[in-house]
Amino acid sequence: MANDDKLDLEKLKALATASDAMTRPCNCGIDGFPGWTRLPVEFPEQQMQIVGTLVEDPYQEATYTEYHRNGSDYWSADAPIAIHYHPYNRCSVLQCKVCARCCLHYVEAGGYYVEKRIRKLASQWIVDVPL
Fold first, then answer.
1. Is 93 within the bounds of a domain?
2. Residue 103 falls within a domain, yes or no?
3. Chain segment 7-52, per-residue pLDDT in tens
4. In angstroms, rounded to a whole number, what is the distance separating the alpha carbons of residues 69 and 56?
């Protein structure tokens, strides 16, 4: 899959299901990031490859509206992965070249800072919710 491929819900679920099944030990540590986290300094970016994007249209401003349920918030490990909502609508999907686990990745560009963030791609949190 090319790094600019748009991932639909089914492709994302397939990547997540395959990632969930991985048991091989790896230094990527993706399993340790169930919720959004600032990219750790020790995260091995060099062993990641971009397998696709969730960005609908790079020339159109995406919504900043978030989708939550059951009391979750942005940082919650159980926050739903709703691809039409923030921050998922700005994400690429990275896959570790060593173990094949996947994570979501985007760059938070707040008022005075830029910060890379990642979250484990887990099939149990993917929801199909229209905008």
1. yes
2. yes
3. 999 999 999 999 999 999 999 999 999 999 999 999 999 999 999 9
4. 23
Q: What is the pLDDT of residues 97-120, one digit of tens each?
A: 999 999 999 999 877 889 999 999
- Please, which residues have CB within 8 angstroms of residue 67's CB and are 6 or more apart in sequence? 80, 82, 84, 85, 127, 129
Q: pTM here?
A: 0.92
Instruction: From residue 61, give the alpha-carbon distance in Å to each of 55, 64, 100.
Output: 10, 9, 31
What domain range includes position 109? 9-127
98, with CB counted inside 10 A (0-12, 13-18, 19+), is middle
Residue 63's CB is within 10 A of a number of other CB atoms, namely: 13
Edge to edge, the sheet with strand 37-38 lists 37-38, 114-120, 102-109, 92-96, 48-53
Structure token pair of residue 41: 């300094």
